Every structure is written in C-alpha cells, then in structure tokens.
TrEMBL record:
CDD domains: ABC_NikE_OppD_transporters (cd03257)
Key words, A-Z: ATP-binding, Nucleotide-binding, Transport
Keyword Transport in annotation: yes
Gene Ontology MF: a single term: ATP hydrolysis activity
Gene3D superfamilies: P-loop containing nucleotide triphosphate hydrolases
UniProt key word Cell wall biogenesis/degradation: no
Family membership: Belongs to the ABC transporter superfamily.
Species the sequence originates in: Brevibacillus invocatus
Protein name: Dipeptide ABC transporter ATP-binding protein
InterPro entries in the record: AAA+_ATPase, ABC_transp_ATP-bind, ABC_transporter-like_ATP-bd, ABC_transporter-like_CS, Oligopep_ABC_C, P-loop_NTPase
Biological process annotations from GO: peptide transport; transmembrane transport
UniProt-listed Pfam families: ABC_tran, oligo_HPY
Domain of life (superkingdom): Bacteria
Amino acid sequence: VKGLQKWFPLSRGFLQSSRFVRAVNNVDLIMRKGETVGIVGESGCGKSTLGRCILRLIEPTDGEIWFNGTNVSSLSKQAMHKYRRNMQMIFQNPYDTLNPKHRIRKILSEPLIAHRVPKEEHETLMVNILERVGLRKEHLERFPHEFSGGQRQRICIARALILGPELVIADEAVSALDVSIQSQILNLLQDLQEQMGLTYLFISHDLSVVQHISDRVAVMYLGEIVEMGDKQSFFQKPLHPYSQALLSAVPKNDPDENRERIILQGDLPSPTNPPSGCKFHQRCHVAMEKCKTEAPLLKEVEGRQVACHLYA
Ligand code: SF4
Ligand code: MG
C-alpha cells in the first residue's frame, strides 16, 4: 500500500468550499505472504476505512495498492470483482452480516455463484470449508438463528474462505464475541492461516487480541500510521507516546510489572479539522514546543518505524 488516502467530502454545496473528513492519510504498508499484521487504534482512527480501501470496497481518494505484482488500484470495477476472490473480508458482527432468511447453503453458495464456480463443485467446496471451520454438512440446511454467536462467526469465516483467498482482512472479527469464544475463533483463524497459507490484516481496538494473533503491529492515529514494528519489541517497549498510552491501559500479565498508567487527555480530535504539527500533540504526555507546528515523519527507530520528534 503506497500513499493511500481516503478523504470523505462533508459538504458538496455549489458555492461552498468542500470540507473533508481525512479518514486515511498517506498510509504506506508492506505485508508479506503468510504473516499477520495487526492494526490498532481508537475507534475513528481510520482502521476500518484503510481495510475497506485495500479491498476497494470503498474507493481510495489517492494512492496505490499492489497485490502480487498487480496494481489493484488501477483495475476496472469488473476486473476488480474477479480479483476480489483473492482478497476477502470478515466483519465484526456475524448477526448483521448473515441474512436471517437464508439457509447456510444459500449463504455459502453466493460467493461461488458470483465468481462463476461450476455448479457441480459447490457441494464439495461447501462441505470442505464447513469442516475446516469446525461445522458439519448437516448445518447447510439450517438458518443463522439456529447457531450461537461463535458458530455464526465460523460461518462468516467459511463464506470468506470458500473461494480460497490469499489475503483476509478481519475488521474487529472477534469484538462482538464473549472472551472465551474469542480465543477459540482466534485459534481457528491461526490454524486456517497455516493450513491455507493465508495472510491477515487484523484490525482491532483490542490490544490483547492483536498481541495474540499478530506478527507485526501498526498503530494508527487520526488516519496515519504512527508506529509499526514486530510484535515482541512493540509490546515490550512501545516507542510512540500514543502507543505507550494505549498499552498502559491493557491489564498487566505480571502484577509486579512496574508500568505507569498513562491517561490520554481529551477525546480524539475531529478528522475534519486535524491539529497542526503532530496530530497527537494536544493529548501527548511528553509534547514539546515544536510538536505544535512540525509534523513528525515516520522514521526508522530501533528497527521499527515511528513518527515522533522524541526520536529525531
Ligand atoms: Fe508527542 Fe511530540 Fe512525539 Fe507528537 S511528536 S507524539 S506530540 S512527543
Ligand atoms: Mg472500525
């Protein structure tokens, strides 16, 4: 992902100057085959918009998306539709995304029909994928309401994987589930990743979930990536003050660990009118004078990328 931007127009009046919500601003992101990149940040920081732009479920305002050597952002709508079997999304709420009037058979056959998979292959593909996610052939004839929340998310995962994608973007995929069910689904996603060679972009506001599943972590703040690095070093020693504040709010594994809680001041500023300089300066516990005027660039620090003047 190169220089990705998504600005939503707020008003389009004839004589009004257009105002924009700058949901995603100049994001660069490299993902390697088979890895899981976790994207974290408060709600409203642009994580979901980034995920949807990568799949072109919404069109980016600017920037490029390359996938296995293809510039996906330049494909026509029609070509993109074909391409999308390689790139699928799993959403937060399995209650909303499964049509209650449709049997599982119909729900799972929809992507097969949309991508013109020959009819005689459907049954085998549906049964195979159901078994992979821990369900059975008999479940094909049931309706979504006959399943528990965790099972419904398994059905959503089956629907996303039935065409054999390479990249899966999971947007808060376990956030609606009970904690005990969350770990089952996370473990399932990890098993499927290994069996099917999947690459995950895992979007979540929940740092413990991201810690469980990710190889690398990117932190977003007001539409930008402010820190990115491998999981171990990130969780041991977050470098960006915003990452430090987010992590300090996570319950500690070791009660003796000496970690101060850093309280974030105020709310997330409006992405319509973002602060000057470092966009985090009004809430930062170590802001300096120059942070008010100069925007820090993402730079290599201790093998990671960080956008903060502390590491000049
Ligand atoms: Fe805080 Fe300044 Fe770093 Fe921004 S650039 S995170 S305000 S220290
Ligand atoms: Mg979101």
